[in-house]
Each structure stands twice: as C-alpha cells, then as structure tokens.
Amino acid sequence: MLDDGNSGMEGRMDLLKRFLLDEDGIMKTVAPIPVGASKEEVEEAVVAGKIALYDDGRGIISKAPWKEEDGKAMIETATERSISCCGGSSRRDGNHQR
C-alpha cells in the first residue's frame, strides 16, 4: 500500500469511500460506518447532521453539486471553490490550473 500521508484506520477508511453521481445533480460521498460504532453513536451523528444513512452499514458523509460537460463529470467543491474533473482542478479565480 502506498503511503499517502494517512495512517492507520483513517487511511483505510478513505480507500472505502464511494462517490455516487445521482441524476439529480448531487454527488454523494458514501463511506462505511466504522465497525466499532454503536447504534447510539450512529443515531447521534445522524441527529447532529454529520451523516445521513445511505444503507445498512454506510452513510453519506458529504454532498456536492455536479454536472456533465463534454462527457466529463464536473464536481464543484465548496472547500476550494474549484471545479474538479477526472483528478484535476482549476480554481475559478484563474490562479491555479492543472
């Protein structure tokens, strides 16, 4: 396994995330609920708005708008205010392009 700066369980959990592009224009990041989490902890996270349940054992941990342009999925990320596609990104202010 490559060292990507993550260690232990957090790094392994990143590998289990799935990104779902729904027809409604919302990309959902789905991740497994940690094995050791109790039912009460999961319910508290749902009530606090930290996750939404997706199915048994998985939760939606984030959502972002997406659209298709020229056959590619374009995802807007709120943290960087950028548009990401196929591993690259370009900031709206034009200061950075990959």
Would you kindly provide a written description of the structure presented here, covering whatever features stand out?
This protein is an alpha+beta fold and 98 residues long. The chain has one domain. 17% of the residues lie in helices and 42% in strands. The protein has helices spanning 8-15, 39-47; strands at 18-21, 26-32, 52-55, 58-69, 72-77, 82-85, 88-91. Strands 1, 2, 3, 4, 5, 6 and 7 form a seven-stranded antiparallel sheet that branches. β6 and β7 (88-91) form a beta hairpin. The longest helix has 9 residues, at 39-47. The protein is elongated. The two termini are 26 Å apart. The relative contact order is 0.13. Mean pLDDT is 75; it is low at 80-98.
Key phrases:
98 residues, alpha+beta, 7 strands
Number of DSSP strand runs = 7
> Which bin fits the share of residues in helices?
10-25%
How would a crystallographer describe the biggest sheet? 7 strands, antiparallel
Rg for CA atoms:
16 Å
What's the pLDDT, averaged over the residues?
75
The succession of helices and strands, N to C, reads: HEEHEEEEE
Tally of helical segments = 2
Measured distance between first and last alpha carbons:
26 Å
- Assembly state of the chains shown: single chain
What spatial form do the alpha-carbon principal axes imply? elongated
Instruction: Please state roughly what percent of the residues sit in beta strands, choosing from under 5%, 5-15%, 15-25%, 25-35%, 35-45% or over 45%.
Output: 35-45%
Overall number of domains: 1
Helix and strand composition category: alpha+beta
Ranges with pLDDT <50 over ≥5 residues? 80-98
